[in-house]
TrEMBL record:
UniProt keyword Transmembrane, yes or no: yes
Family: Belongs to the heme-copper respiratory oxidase family.
Gene Ontology cellular component annotations, sorted alphabetically: plasma membrane; respiratory chain complex IV
Compartments reported by the entry: Cell membrane; Membrane
Reaction catalysed by this enzyme: 4 Fe(II)-[cytochrome c] + O2 + 8 H(+)(in) = 4 Fe(III)-[cytochrome c] + 2 H2O + 4 H(+)(out)
Protein name: Cytochrome c oxidase subunit 1
Species assigned in the record: Verminephrobacter eiseniae (strain EF01-2)
InterPro entries: Cyt_c_oxase-like_su1_dom, Cyt_c_oxase-like_su1_sf, Cyt_C_Oxase_1, Cyt_c_Oxase_su1_BS, Cyt_c_oxase_su1_dom, Cyt_c_oxidase_su1_bac
MF annotations from Gene Ontology: cytochrome-c oxidase activity; heme binding; metal ion binding; oxidoreductase activity
Amino acid sequence: MSAVLDNHGHAGDHAHDDGQHHGPTGWRRWMFATNHKDIGTLYLLFAFAMLMVGGVLALLIRAELFQPGLQLMNPEFFNQLTTMHGLIMVFGAIMPAFVGFANWMIPLQIGAADMAFARMNNFSFWLMIPAALMLVSSFFMPGGAPAAGWTLYAPLTLQMGPSMDAGIFALHILGASSIMGSINIIVTILNLRAPGMTLMKMPMFAWTWLITAYLLIAVMPVLAGAITMTLTDRHFGTSFFNPAGGGDPVMFQHIFWFFGHPEVYIMILPAFGIISQIVPAFARKRLFGYASMVYATSSIAILSFIVWAHHMFTTGMPVTGQLFFMYATMLIAVPTAVKIFNWIATMWRGSMTFEAPMLFAVGFIFVFTMGGFTGLFLAMAPLDVQLQDTYYVVAHFHYVLVAGSLFSMFAGIYYWLPKWTGVMYREECGRIHFWSSLIFFNITFFPMHFLGLAGMPRRYADYALQFADFNAIATVGGFGFGLAQVYFFVAVVVPALRGKGEKAPTKPWDGAEGLEWEVPSPAPFHTFATPPRLDASATRVIG
């Protein structure tokens, strides 16, 4: 072992300095990975693979809905597609992708040598592979995949074939993986920050993930409880949700949404963190209202526990209950609006440039705000009774989750890709990907607002003739959006993985601040052998 000076001028132990990664090579490097960067890469590649699988299911759904009447499949298979599309996208694509970002960036941002529990980190990733295989293979089981909707409502789940048990088992494993990942993130952030980095000096991405990790630990056991009760109803003679035995199917909805609504914020808070890193960098200003952003994130997390039954306005709850959940849901719009106004204030009179990360960040703010507004309409009980289970709801949550979670991920990938791979992506490829994604996304989902307002129910394989035109438009948009993501993989991801492109400098973006921009590109295998010491502003390294 030769001691070499690392990038901060500290002496650190490095195995060889021949430009090779230090550590295991070949398949062992990935199979037994304990380095946070390798595990982050594995998470991101896994999430992208699942995004493609879930996307193919979505395109099958849209192909069926291109015209009225049954085109390609029977209604049962259509319902299997809608169920598995939801489960794969939520648990297989969005959540693992954000954990990939956390693994890659949190140690770099807080000056830690690695995640706190490196072997548990490896285990939490590899658990997801059998779970994903179980989910995807459920299509080939007797009776086909689960067809109860991604919300898995009883009594439908009590009537499904053996694939339902595989789905329940897969969700348990994915939940265990999430809990382990969350424990790792919390301990890393609380214990391994560089000297001088207080909590209120941390980057916003680290803050949003800290809060998200607490949310995950709080609600994943609730989901585990709900699906375990479903399992015992199916096989062990209990009647939690079976009315014939004195059970209550509506109780499942309460338990599920007590998990499900915080889950929505689990999928958007890390996105807020990514956008809060990118907007100041490309506006070349400090983030406006840092403390208020931290408090807003915490408020969203706390309020997310008292709004779950806004998904259940049509279940016959008392008016008092409807009023409580209606007002609580409107209240949660306030901290969300604080964030949006802070991003706009950060951009105000900034020296802005619009490279791909900023394009996706601005696109995110625009389209996510639209999704937030439609959420306010659905928060009002009298309106929601009309719009419940229509395509208006489909439009709303895709505006929040596709334009929210997915666009923010693309922003983060373009922003940090030079640091991850050591090469710059081609800017024109990023622009093509952004504009095609934004345009096709709106062509796909904007017409669904009108379909929902006109009364078209969701999860139906057939529909009345009056809905034909908007469905045809949405299907064309859906295929365009899918192709845009294939283009992104071929034109941006593959060249970066192969190291093709202009070499990235240590700090490729002028206005970017933070410890991750103090290490070379690509980030070395062992980043901070000696913890960096920070100056009073916690942005520059001393020495």
